[in-house]
Amino acid sequence: MRVAFIGNALPRRCGIATFTTDLELAVRQLDDMAQTAIVAMCDPGSQYAFAPHVRWSVAQEDAAAYLSAADFINGAGFDVELR
User: Fold this and answer.
1) Within 13 Å, how many C-alpha atoms sit on residue 34's CB side?
2) Residues 6+ away with beta carbon under 8 Å from 78
3) How far apart are CA 56 and CA 68, in angstroms?
4) CA distances from 11 to 24, 33, 50, 51, 63 (A)
5) pLDDT computed for residue 50 by the predictor
6) pLDDT digit of tens for each residue in the chain (83 aa)?
7) Is 42 within 8 Å of 57 (Cβ atoms)?
8) Could you tell me which of 45, 62, 39, 46 has the C-alpha nearest to residue 12?
9) DSSP notation for 24-68
10) What are phi and psi of 67, to 5 degrees?
11) Which residues, in sequence order, are CB contacts of 73 under 8 Å at separation 6+?
12) Which residues are CB-neighbours of 22 under 8 A, at least 6 positions away?
């Protein structure tokens, strides 16, 4: 199973970022998990030093970035996307 998580991720400082990062870590450790990834949202004008499991980032105010993220998810063959 390949699962992509879409949301905020650490080191962005918010509760959802902590939750998404912790959830991805827990799911990644399941026996039947082939791959996990996070597609992380970025605040306008911000850049983050994301961990390796953040495979894609989206600038919140850039409509084209959402389409690029969808192309990444579809092209990578994820079975499930969690938002």
Assistant:
1) 8
2) 2, 3, 4, 35, 37
3) 9
4) 14, 24, 6, 8, 23
5) 96
6) 899 999 999 999 999 999 999 999 999 999 888 899 999 999 988 889 999 999 999 999 999 999 999 999 999 999 987 77
7) yes
8) 46
9) HHHHHTSTT--EEEEEEEE-TT------TTEEEEEETT-HHHHHH
10) -65, -40
11) 4, 6, 39, 56, 81
12) none
The structure tokens listed for 6 are: 């879409």
Which tokens belong to 5?
């998580």
Q: Which two tokens stand for residue 12?
A: 């962005």
Prior bond to 11 cis, omega within 30? yes
